[in-house]
Amino acid sequence: MTKSIVLLLLLVLSTSNANAGPTADGAVKKGFIQCGVNTGLAGFSQPDSNGEWRGIDVDLCRAVAAALFGNPKKLRFTPLTAQQRFTALQSGEVDLLSRNTTWTITRDTSLGLNFVGVNYYDGQGFMVTKKRNVKSAKQLNGAAVCVQPGTTTELNLADYFRANNMKFKPVVIEKMEEVLSAYFAGRCDVYTTDVSGLVAARSSRAANAADHVILPEVISKEPFGPVVRHGDDHWFDAVKWSLYAMIDGEELGLTSKNIEQQAQSANPVIQRFVGATGDIGKMLGLDNRWAYNIIKQVGNYGESFERNLTPLGLDRGINKLWNRGGLMFAPPLR
Amino acid sequence: MPADTTGRNQSARPIFHPRHRAVVYQALLAAAVILAAWYFISNAVENLLARRIASGFGFLSREAGFEIGETALLTYSASDSYLRALAVGLFNTFRVALPAILISSLIGMALGLARLAPNWLLAKLASAYVEVMRNVPLVVQLFFWYAVITESLPAPADALSPLPGVFLSNRGFAYPTLAGQFTLALDYPALSGFGFTGGGSLSPEFAALFLGLTLYTAAFIGEIVRAGILSVDRGQFEAARSLGLSGRQVMRFVILPQALRVIVPPVTSQYLNCTKNSSLAVAIGYPDLVAIVNTTINQTGQAIEGLAIIMLVYLAISLGISSLMNWYNARIALRGAQS
Q: Which member of A234, A284, B126, B329 lies 3.0 to 4.6 Å from B264 by CB, making a disulfide possible if both were Cys?
């Protein structure tokens, strides 16, 4: 509450800056990018035991820092709850929101934000305790459901139960930690969020992961992507192509380990990618080695996925590259 | 040099008259406040327009689309409007704040008397209670009660049943209600599917918030009551005793009526605090007004409108409580006294 008032004050106080490229200029001036992330979602953004932020959303922030500064460490994180995230971005407290945020038309338009692309395709699911012996979401009539407020999850949940003519008791708690402890304490029969979030919660918070099952129904499309403010097209481009560079890098077989050696390759596509020929970096207003830096310092999309999500037991699934049967498709860098 | 006389002449001019000067200063201050407000508002409007963020209160009539866990006083479903969702939130705020005010006043009165009781153990217990409750942040107490309820009570299938038809579980407190308006038959809660259906129920969120608010506010009220009683001159007590009144009668007819004049104004502040503190509900998932507005802000992106609604509603509630308490205070004031 206090936080949202502070954020609102910032929105009221910040002067208009609708000219080209102010976000990147501001970041260069202060020497770092302020990135809004989740307060703690394993695999997406969560500090490890050394206080180092880890996750695919965090890697995206690092990729943008690598592209802008050639240094993925020129970054500061603002942990945000689902409710704080949009105000924080609108008010300019963060330069970039990379926080498992679903791309919807309302958010893309009336919230004054732009989604730059998709870094994880997800869908909403339900988790219940195994001893309930529930096999399908259609059997959840009358259940108490733990959910976080201000999410698409909360709306999809209501839609799904309405469409199937079932009733439920929502238990709506803002903080991830609190909503999970309510579920694990048995306050709710069901916990609902994106399937990746269910898997992450089960593997990182449950006393015994085998006691919880994720039901087969996936009731929504949840494409997650980084978000920027309306009105700064240069910044929008820089963040968008940082994401695409990670995906294209994987497609080209460029990894943090081999890119140094691959940069010597005669392949013109790779030559353009690493900035040896052409000037795609300049077109973005970045260093010509921006994409090289992203792959060298952060890694390609596949490396980020394997580092963060595979250990949780999440399969690449529909997040495979398009030419391997998935949905990850980035426009060509040329 | 005629400097002295010049000064005197100047101070005699109308513009230097203290009263005129005061008017000028006040006008300047008012202008500054209006300018600042205008600056903030126009700046916000410009920023909202530049970023194409929606504004206005049109969203209130749109379908809310989310469910609310507690709709005890007003029917509501996801297909109702945001306005109705906010009304449900407001009712939920009242539903917890009013009983909390009532019960915390009773406990506070007992605490204040207990702290002054000649019984050493009773007085010490009461002061220990006051110190613990006053010095632990309310939100921590709410988490504590919520954890106690959800972690220590059994699942619905093994619910405790202290009385027939009454069940305590980590889903809350289920109790029988009258089956209809003109009947004495009871509608008993029964275990079915995932929880209890039928009868009435109080959720763990409500219970935790009510307990936390009541016990916390009671500690403050207890101290105010104690101060009020101590403010009554000792001679009053002795005089009443010498008339042959019993200890209880002295308190009831002599001390408390005089103490109330001291007690009521600060207790009014506590009632306002109690109502405003109920907005901590958001931490443990009780759907009060603030929780609903937060969700609304997030779904519509209209933070300024949402916060304006919160501020206006709390202002209205606070002014309402204040005027009620001021009326009561005027009634109990000494006859002929100005207060």
A: B329
The answer, yes or no, to whether ipTM is higher than 0.95 is: no
- Cα dihedral B132, B136, B142, B145, rounded to 10, equals -40
pLDDT band at A293 (very low <50, low <70, confident <90, very high): very high
Instruction: Give me the DSSP letters along A161-216.
Output: HHHTT--EEEEE-SSHHHHHHHHHTTS-SEEEEEHHHHHHHHHHH-SSGGGEEE-S
Residues in chain A within 8 Å Cβ distance of B44: 11-12
**3 state DSSP class of A105:** helix
C-alpha dist (Å) from residue A321 to A120, A244, A294, A302, A316 = 11, 12, 18, 9, 9
Classify domain B82-332 by CATH number: 1.10.3720.10
Give the chain B residue nearest A11 (alpha carbons). Answer: B44
Output b/e per residue, B36-75; b: 16+ Cβ within 10 A. eeeeeeebbeebbeebebbeeeebbeeebbbbbbbbeeee
Locate A244 and state its tokens.
């695409």
What confidence tens digit (pLDDT) does each residue in B264-312 have? 999 999 999 999 999 999 889 999 999 999 999 888 888 889 999 999 9
B285–A182 CB contact, under 8 Å: yes
The interface residues of chain A toward chain B in range 70-129, judged by CB-CB distance below 8 A, are: 82-83, 86-87, 90, 106-107, 109-112
A12 neighbourhood in chain B, CB within 8 Å: 40, 43-44, 47, 304
Q: How many CB pairs under 8 A join A and B?
A: 158
Map out the domains of chain A with their CATH numbers: 2-121+224-324 (3.40.190.10), 124-220 (3.40.190.10)
The pLDDT mean for chain A works out to 91
> Do A200 and A77 contact (CB within 8 A), yes or no?
no
* Shortest Cα distance, chain B CAs vs residue A105, angstroms: 11
Q: Tell me whether residues A110 and B65 touch, CB distance under 8 A.
A: no
pTM here is: 0.80
Kindly list the residues from chain A whose CB atom is less than 8 angstroms away from the CB atom of residue B304.
8, 11-12
